[in-house]
Amino acid sequence: MEENVFIIHPSEIVRKGLALILQEYFKMEITQLSSINDLNSFAAITNNLIIVIIQKGLVLPVETEERLRKNNQFFLISLSASTDTEGVTDGYDYDLNVLASNLEIQKLVQVIRKSASKTKTSNTDNGDLTQREKDVIRQVALGLSNKEMADKLNISIHTVISHRKNITEKLNIKSISGLTVYAIMNNLLDISDINPEELI
Amino acid sequence: MKIFTKDNKISSLVATNSNLIPVINRFGILLGFKEKTIEEICLEKNVNTDFFLAIVNTYTNENYFPEDELLSFSPLLLIDYLKTTHRYYNQYVLPKIERLLAAVMQTCAENCSSLKMISSFYQKFKTELHIHLAQEDEKVFPYIIDLYHNRVLTEGKSIRKYEDEHTSVEEKLSDLKNLVIKYLEPTYDPSAMVEFLNTLFQFEKDLFDHARIEDLILIKQVIRIEEELKTNAAR
């Protein structure tokens, strides 16, 4: 998961200073914006860890925040001035005080990373293909439809689809011609079984 | 991630992201910038600055989506740009990839059948890409140009019907890459393969950014025109 950090603050001194500290410790990808509305340009991000730091009291454009929250691990941090009341207020996930030490900033980032990795779905089953999956790949390469495969292998279409999904996840190969090449390269199929012209 | 503005020096743009060199070349802007800003060089080369910025920022930041005001330039500008890009792919990039692949094949002495499969697969990808580019040049772009000039909707035609074409080409390119990395027996000269793969990776990224520009800018502009015409017709 990629990390995107946005520092949105009208003061360049604050933006640059905070960015410098974060970069020094975390080598994070940081985008500095001067106005809240600039974040709208980034509303299309998906599947990332997004940390947005804004001046306490300000709110993000509602639609943009909803969209980013829906599609990402999203954390909104308020940057409070020394005179503000302490602690996290409604609408923000965390609070950072301008007087915070380097150590406190590091701690905050670690807390966020931890909470993001907890909810991350694991997808580590990257083993070899099962015998059944090899059967399916062979039929895919021969050009059979899901229905035909289900009949031939005596399994339901639903099972065929689930096998195909697993195959694609394991191999990281999606196209039918790509799977055909895989099948031949791994001796699941002989080149004489297919028409190479068709692949071309 | 940095959003470039018209006051930035054009040399800093290229220094940040050297992948932009072919992109700005397509605007007729060549290296040797001296101290010129983006605005100055655009003025000099008669390039719309907003348009230039929308393109380079979309290329540089994967997650950047141009704000509405940046979308105010004419779609014809964008079409010209995209056509130039297609020509660059057809005349320069694809032949280069093919040359490099042929060079890899030449270094294979025995057990070359898998490599031949890869080569066939590449041909398949190339054919599909050619069809895709030609479809845009011959159907999609003329549709947009016509819509822009004549301001009339045609029954049964809309830009949304032309969408969804990118994915299968991108899928094949990604498959090609994974087949070579994970499953191809290395019966070839590694250095020749490095050159081939580097060019392929670069092209994959370029193609991806190219598709994003079409989807995020051009299609959005056309949908806006279509909706305007629909509203006018309803009145």
Please work out how many helical segments of chain B DSSP would assign: 9
Report the mean per-residue pLDDT of chain A as an integer: 85
> Mean pLDDT of chain B, as a whole number?
89
Indicate how many domains the architecture of chain A comprises: 2
* Helix coverage percent of chain B: over 70%
Q: Give the tally of β-strands of chain B.
A: 0
Report the uncertain regions of chain A.
Answer: 121-126
Q: Whole-Å distance between the termini of chain B?
A: 45 Å
What best-fitting shape of chain B do the alpha-carbon axes yield?
globular
What is the CA-atom radius of gyration of chain B, in angstroms?
A: 20 Å
How many domains, in number, for the residues of chain B? 2
Notes on the structure:
The complex is a heterodimer of chains A (200) and B (235). Chain A folds into 2 domains: 3-119, Response regulator (Rossmann fold), CATH 3.40.50; 131-199, Winged helix-like DNA-binding domain superfamily/Winged helix DNA-binding domain (Arc Repressor Mutant, subunit A, Orthogonal Bundle). Helix content of chain A is 46%, strand content 14%. Chain A contains 8 helices and 5 strands, in the order E-H-E-E-H-E-E-H-H-H-H-H-H. Chain A has helices spanning 12-26, 62-71, 102-119, 131-141, 146-153, 157-171, 176-185, 196-199; strands spanning 3-8, 30-33, 49-55, 73-80, 94-97. In chain A, helix 4 (131-141) crosses helix 7 and helix 5 packs across helix 6 (157-171). Chain A is elongated, with a radius of gyration of 25 Å. Chain B has 235 residues and is mostly helical. Chain B folds into 2 domains: 10-70, no CATH class; 74-234, no CATH class. Chain B is globular, with a radius of gyration of 20 Å. The model of chain B has no long low-confidence stretch (mean pLDDT 89). The chains are: A alpha/beta (200), B mainly alpha (235). Chain A binds chain B through residues 4, 29-31, 38, 40-45, 48, 171-175, 177-178, 181-182, 184-186, 191, 196, 199-200, and chain B through 1-3, 63-67, 113-114, 117-118, 120-121, 123-124, 127, 168, 171-172, 174-176, 178-179, 182-185, 216.
